[in-house]
Structure formats: structure tokens, C-alpha cells
Amino acid sequence: MKTFNTSHSLAAPPRLPLRALCALVLTLTFLGGCASTGNPRDPLEPVNRAIYQFNDGFDRAIATPVAEGYRSFVPRLVRAGIGNFFSNLGDIWIAANNLMQGKVDDAANDFGRVVINTTIGLLGVIDVASDAGLEKHNEDFGQTLGRWGIGSGPYIVLPFLGPSTARDALGHGLVDSQANFVVQTNHVPTRNTLFAIKAIDTRANLLDASRVVEEAALDKYNFIRDAYLQRRQSLVFDGNPPREEPAEFDRAPGR
């Protein structure tokens, strides 16, 4: 889960966390190349498990109770409008990623969604575009890097942010975060409030999935890791990933 920081007093988006994230990813990737746990996809499993335990403790103590309170006290219609608003902002960057991947028709669809939902849908609060037949896509810069032929690299668990890979941490995490319109908001109180609302709304939407994991998984770490890697691979290949040998897990389209 993404977290937020309400302590920044500068007008510009904070840079230190981004540099720290980049340094962390590079360090973990280097260590992953030196380590060996028997799982080529997760060479840093001992470190990843420790970070996972930290994240899980934070989630149980703070994130989940806040999300449950949010879902209990905020009406469903209001929560839907909040989700639609942030989804509409995301469609702008989704369109850009589809364009970078050469999927011009999908990019046009996404831009059309933004125009319709921003105008008729009252700044995206109402998802008019879906009712009009314009499909909602899921693209990010991590997927774009995958389409360009860059492999996923080792599996990494990031503090607070959760499951990732070397490619996704730099693409989906670092680049996408800077393309986020919330980050580009110069008014600090507004930016932090939007971060908080988006983080809580996102966690609330995952409450049911979390309960399924709790009930179904004997080893939650393995379950989450395998589900994440399979989902990301499927997203890169638009739902049609090739059958691969374990050693070829990182193979990107056309390789």
C-alpha cells in the first residue's frame, strides 16, 4: 500500500524519497545478483520476508483499521465518486503509456474517457465513459518498459509500498509517481489531503481481497509474491503471456 507524508513544508514535490527509492532498488538489485536462495525470481527472499513482515505489521496496526473505518462511515456512492475521480486522473497517464507502447487505438480510447468523464462526468466523479462503451485500461510505465523488452529483474518488497520488481520499482513506482497529477499539485495541504484520501480509498478497496488471502494462503508471502509476478507478467502481455520456463521468467515481448 502506498503511504503519504503530511510533514513536507516545501511547495515543490519532495525529491528525497524518490532518490532514496532509486538507491534502495539499485542496492537490492545488486544484492539480488550476489545472493542465492534457490528461487531465481526471488533471490532476496530473506530480506524481502523481513520487509514484508514490517509492512504487514503496519497494515494491521494502522492501514486496515483506517480503511475499515472509511468504508463503514463513508457512503458507498461517495466512495464510488472518489474512486472515479482518481481513476479519471490516472487515465491521462494510462493513455500516454498506451501511446508509448504503440497502442494508438487504446490511447485514443483513454483520452476519450478523460474528455467525457472530466466534462459530462463532473471532473471524473461519474464514470460516464464506461457506460458509453469506452473500456477502462490498466497501463503504467513498468508495463511500458516490459513492452520495450526490459525484463522484470528480481522480486523486491519495498517498505510501505509492498510487492515489486526492479523494473516495476523504477518504472511503475518512480516514473509513474512523478507523472501523477497529485504529485504535481503545488499546494501542499491539498496535495497531502489528496494523497491521504487516495491511499485510504485504495486500501479500502482491497479489504475483501486481503481477507481471501488470510483465509486461503498457508504462506501469505509466497501467495502474494506469486500472484503479483503472474499478474504483472499478464499485464505486460495484455492477458496473453507466453508459456515460459522458470529461468525465462523475465523474458519480455519479442524476446
Task: Describe the structure in your own words.
The chain is mainly α and 255 residues long. It has one domain. 62% of the residues lie in helices and 3% in strands. It is built from 10 helices and 2 strands. It has helices at residues 16-34, 45-73, 76-100, 104-119, 128-131, 141-147, 166-179, 188-205, 207-216, 220-236; strands spanning 155-158, 162-165. It has a two-stranded antiparallel sheet with strand order 1-2. β1 and β2 form a beta hairpin. α2 packs across α8. The longest helix has 29 residues, at 45-73.
What topology does this entry show?
Blueprint: H1 16-34, H2 45-73, H3 76-100, H4 104-119, H5 128-131, H6 141-147, E1 155-158, E2 162-165, H7 166-179, H8 188-205, H9 207-216, H10 220-236
Antiparallel strand pairs: 1-2
Helix pairs in contact: 1-7, 2-8, 3-4, 3-8, 6-7
Structural features:
255 residues; 2 strands; 10 helices; two-stranded antiparallel ribbon; globular; single chain; mainly alpha
Low-pLDDT residue spans? 1-16
Judging from the principal axes of the Cα atoms, what is the shape? globular
Number of distinct beta strands: 2
Whole-Å distance between the termini?
32 Å
- Per DSSP, the total helix count is 10
The SSE string, one letter per element, is HHHHHHEEHHHH
Which percent bin holds the helix content? 55-70%
β-strand percent reads: under 5%
Based on helices, strands and strand pairing, what is the structural class?
A: mainly alpha
Largest sheet: 2 strands, antiparallel
- Give the total of domains: 1
Report the radius of gyration as a whole number of Å. Answer: 19 Å
Strand order of the largest sheet: 1-2
Could you tell me the mean pLDDT? 85
